[in-house]
Amino acid sequence: MSENPKTIEHIQEIGNILVCFVITKLDEEFGSNDPREARKRINDHLWCDLLVAMADAIKMFENVMDRIPEYVTTIIMQSREADDRKPFLEALVRLAVRTAWEPIKKMVDATGILEIQRACRILAVLICPAPEKHKAVQDGALLPLAKEGLLATSKERLERVFPTDWVRRLQEGFGGV
Predict the structure, then answer these.
(1) Angle formed at CA 17 by CA 39 and CA 25, multiple of 5 degrees
(2) Strands in 34-168 per DSSP E
(3) At the top level of its lineage, which domain of life is listed (predicted)?
(4) Shared-domain flag, residues 155 and 81
(5) C-alpha span between 98 and 33 (Å, rounded)
(6) pTM of the model
């Protein structure tokens, strides 16, 4: 994380959203007379579940984005047919869409979708009270982070935060990643 200050910035931004907006809203709606007691109840993995699910939804969004050229091509072809317009050669439409999509996709990527996904995963691990026992955090945050090599480079840091034997089991569970 220290090599990527943007990640730290995004983690802080997401953490601020949880603290400043979500907790405030939950206190208003469900805090009744004792917001501290209500907060205690929701600290049972709500935040890490929320962040892992957000990261998963972002991954689904990324996968859907890869299918956008195919979708746009289909829509164009169907639209022309429905409007009784002269059909285009599908290969021509496909090429035009792919050629337009690449720079547009770069613009979308510049918003940092993957960085936000990573930040959600990292923050889920950091705030989870027991990531070694929380399957959603293991599968939705730790494993993807391990696969992208983040955990391997941060093994030392993890061992400072988590028990050494837990980090060893985590690595073994991920096939030594």
Answers:
(1) 45
(2) none
(3) Bacteria
(4) no
(5) 57
(6) 0.58
Contact assessment for residue 62 and residue 118, using Cβ atoms and an 8 Å cutoff: no
**132: how many CB neighbours lie within 10 A of its CB?**
16
End position of a domain, from candidates 82, 109, 136: 109
Quote the domain boundaries for residue 47.
5-62+116-173
**Is 41 found in the same domain as 82?**
no
Nearest to 14, CA basis, from 167, 119, 160: 119
- Domains in the chain, number: 2
How many other CB atoms are there within 10 angstroms of residue 72's CB atom? Answer: 17
d(CA 23, CA 29) in angstroms, rounded, equals: 10
Q: Residue 103 in contact with residue 87, Cβ under 8 Å?
A: no
The residue type found at 61 is F
3-state SS assignment for residue 102: helix
In the chain (177 residues long), the average pLDDT of successive 10-residue segments reads: 78 90 82 73 84 90 88 91 83 90 73 75 88 86 83 60 68 59
In Å, how far from its chain's centre is CA 115? Answer: 8
- Whether residue 145 contacts residue 125, with contact meaning beta carbons closer than 8 Å, is answered with yes
Helix (H) / strand (E) element for 56: namely: helix 46-66
Helix (H, G, I), strand (E, B) or coil at 149: coil
